[in-house]
Amino acid sequence: MTATLTREISAYNLSATSENKIHDDAVAQKFGFRGGLVPGVEVYAYMTNLPVQKFGAEWLSGGTAECRLQKPVYDGRMVHTSGVLETDGSLTLKVESEGVLCGSGTASMGHGKIAPDIAGYPVEPLPDYDARPDAAPESLVEGQIMGTFRQTMDAVELTQYLDDVREDLALYGEERIVHPGWLLRLGNRALTMNVRLGPWIHVGSRLDNFTTAHYGDIVEARAKVSKQYEHKGHRFVELDVLLVANGETALARIDHTAIYRPRQVAEAAQAREAG
Description:
Layout: E1 4-10, H1 25-30, H2 40-55, H3 58-62, E2 63-69, E3 78-85, E4 91-97, E5 100-109, E6 149-152, H4 155-164, H5 171-175, H6 180-192, E7 201-209, E8 218-231, E9 234-245, E10 249-261, H7 263-274
Antiparallel strand pairs: 1-3, 2-5, 2-7, 3-4, 4-5, 6-8, 7-10, 8-9, 9-10
């Protein structure tokens, strides 16, 4: 019999007042959504409870995951997460809300990869926040080294985050381990701290974990632009992000994909120009 892990939680939009207005109800409704979108990094956070249940803390320091974000999750709606154990030992993950598949992915142990040499991900200064260039093909050139975002893992913030993402596993607080959802947020910061964006959408990530981050660590998001392209009117960017603790330890590598200029934004801009 196939083993299945399941969990029910109430979604919470942590970013309703963020710079990314796709999380604001009024703006999201203009793009055809029912309300502001719960951030994709938090949908991933909901997913991660299941592989940690199955594989334990070892997954946080030696596992791999992939998440694809297909449909919106809305604030306050019930979310059903499930993980099916496959014959190869991996988990097939799903996030559903109101009968709709919103996210999917996989998680497994033992990726067998050696952490990259951090020297291959050089530290570069961030642009002044108010002087960030607009996100565009010219500012997101393939191969470009991004400015390095750096953040101290604050115990108060991280404790609140556990409540916000409905995390019920005790090991994060007891062992002062930084939640993987918070770490994936740093993939977003590698983008947003380097370029100015309008409404944008995180659509998926692939992650290899090498070791855990702990409260008090200083974590850097060192990133490169791996791809930048147009598809069905949307402008996409893919980032290769290495998370580094205290300037010396590779924590995780992330392939991070976002629509930095949705088709609807481009169409609205063209309509304004025509008018």
